[in-house]
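re: the backbone from monday

yeah here it is again, tokenized this time
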């Protein structure tokens, strides 16, 4: 038969039985090869022949070159493992990704990282910076693990909580002591001071002290112009709440309401006209109408702060020379108001705008 290309052969209509021959051209000579002689050549095709050299697989198997001419199977393993390179000319394997050895780059905050490669200083406080990354600021936050001190605005905290702002700002320092064998005292407190650039070195603070044997203690409020920071036991104490709950004022300024707590009101028509002033303290200016000799007039002070258990203290504020011929007193106190009486004890009629100061002292029945 004439020579034909494989692609030009017609489709076989009869299965090959093994007795046919296949013409092969070798060195320009046609040879006949029995079909049966082809069977030994139909075994597994090796990698060197373009095959895999494998005849079966398990689900999940991966092929890899185990030599320069053969392929091998890498069996699948448990869920959650990844293929890890063993290096050049080394077989790969499954395993866990080592975050210290198998990663590169910086893990962003969105993926649970810090987004920074900066080495953190021991004791520094890590926080979210404006740029969306984690940062540290040893000038603002610092933890002294050795002493257990926390510094805000300072990297050398000298107390359990030590805060400090830049020059011209408020500085707060706190100090705490454990039980002292010598004095048997446990104490805690803090100082507040303004730096010299503010024009004053005045220091003030609050201290808490418990006596030996876990008995009663006290809370002190003080100025500390010359004492050491946190020394509320020898500083210039102004007020103390003792273990019995008594409020003790040692300042010569006394105890009372300060500027901003009070108010004023003036009677509109007569000395009997009611007035309203919802303040804990204040001054009432009475109408200048005449008040006959040995006559008492009363008027209502409406004040939402007053309750039935409170005390209202009134005094002649000294208007018009502080005429001593007026007696002023409160004789009815009820919720939301009190009744104030004024009596002329002189021998004649008086027509003055009497000034009355009042102060509310809260009370209780139990």
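seq for it, each position gets an aa:
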């Amino acid at each position: 038969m004439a020579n034909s290309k494989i692609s030009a052969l017609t489709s076989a209509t009869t299965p090959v039985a093994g007795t046919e021959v296949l013409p092969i051209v070798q060195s320009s000579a046609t040879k006949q090869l029995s079909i049966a002689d082809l069977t030994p050549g139909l075994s597994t095709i090796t990698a060197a022949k373009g095959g895999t050299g494998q005849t079966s697989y398990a689900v999940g198997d991966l092929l890899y070159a185990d030599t320069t001419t053969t392929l091998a199977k890498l069996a699948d393993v448990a869920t959650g493992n990844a293929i890890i390179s063993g290096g050049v000319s080394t077989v790969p394997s499954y395993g866990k990704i080592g975050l210290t050895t198998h990663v590169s780059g910086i893990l962003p905050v969105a993926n649970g990282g810090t987004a920074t490669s900066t080495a953190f200083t021991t004791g520094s406080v890590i926080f979210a910076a404006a740029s969306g990354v984690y940062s540290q600021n040893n000038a603002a936050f610092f933890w002294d693990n050795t002493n257990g001190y926390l510094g805000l605005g300072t990297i050398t905290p000298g107390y359990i909580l030590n805060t400090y702002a830049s020059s011209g700002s408020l500085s707060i320092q706190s100090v705490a002591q454990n039980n002292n064998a010598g004095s048997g005292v446990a104490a805690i407190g803090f100082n507040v001071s303004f730096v010299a650039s503010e024009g004053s070195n005045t220091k003030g603070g609050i201290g808490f002290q418990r006596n030996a044997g876990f008995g009663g203690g006290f809370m002190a409020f003080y100025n500390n112009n010359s004492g050491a920071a946190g020394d509320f036991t020898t500083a210039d104490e102004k007020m103390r709440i003792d273990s019995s709950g008594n409020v003790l004022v040692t300042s010569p300024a006394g105890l009372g309401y300060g500027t901003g707590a009070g108010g004023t009101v003036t009677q509109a028509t007569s000395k009997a006209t009611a007035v309203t002033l919802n303040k804990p303290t204040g001054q009432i200016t009475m109408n200048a109408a005449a008040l006959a000799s040995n006559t008492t007039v009363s008027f209502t002070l409406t004040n939402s702060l007053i309750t039935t258990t409170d005390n209202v203290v009134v005094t002649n504020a000294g208007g018009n020379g502080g005429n001593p011929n007026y007696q002023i007193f409160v004789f009815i106190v009820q919720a939301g108001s009190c009744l104030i009486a004024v009596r002329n004890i002189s021998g004649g009629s008086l027509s003055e705008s009497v000034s009355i100061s009042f102060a509310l002292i809260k009370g209780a029945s139990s």
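Confidence is low (pLDDT under 50) at residues 167-171, 176-186, 194-202. The longest strand covers residues 186-194.
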